[in-house]
Amino acid sequence: MNTDDDVRPVAASSKRQLTKTTLIALLVAAGILVTTVLPAEYGLDPLGTGAVLGLMPLSGPPIVPEEVAVPAGALPTPVQEGPVAHYPVEYKFDAVEFTLGPYDYLEYKYQLERGAAMMFSWTASGALIHDFHGERIGAPSASAESFKKADTSRAHGSFTAPFAGIHGWYWENPGGEPVSITLTTTGFYSAAVEIRSDRTRHPHELRSMETVIGAIDRGAAAIP
């Protein structure tokens, strides 16, 4: 037969274990809330873990690609003639520099028609999370098609757009020090846009090769 004296220690031990388990569960839930839920759902990142894990882009409204206004007849749509592609306009040149703060990110993209080509070269002062991808005009960002993902500090190559849309780079600085990026491109694109981490869009002016050659002929030390 069990007496009250036999039961009480067991009940007290069970109560202490339940309290301990509850406290641990609350601490785990609080940790998940601060490190993942707040950055992903509300854009709050008190510990910086949201930026490190790439959750901050999830907190804002989806970025829907917007077609930049281009004069009628000026879209550089290629006409294939065997291995040669003919374009109705001359190709453009672009050179830009960015500085990414700790855990910051941005996107830089060009509007390209299907089959339009460009060449590119970019370098960074430190390793970046990098995603080269494309998005069809009017489609949500979730439908983006990735062409190359890597943690790297440079990339050089050429690209031919598989579909009409905006194509370019997502760069994220995973470290605690600023990282500078230099990008140079030339190709048959019609517009360029910078999309910052605060979701603002900033169109960039493109230059013709005639403008670049003119600057060289004038003895310009650098092309602005």
Could you explain how this protein is built, in words?
The chain has 224 residues and is of the alpha+beta class. 23% of the residues lie in helices and 39% in strands. The chain folds into 2 domains: 4-52, no CATH class; 64-217, GOLD domain (Jelly Rolls, Sandwich), CATH 2.60.120.680. The chain is built from 3 helices and 11 strands; from the N terminus they run H-H-E-E-E-E-E-E-E-E-E-E-E-H. It is elongated. Residues 1-5 and 58-73 have low confidence and may be disordered.
Features:
elongated, disordered N terminus, 2 domains, 224 residues, nine-stranded antiparallel beta sheet, Jelly Rolls, 3 helices, alpha+beta
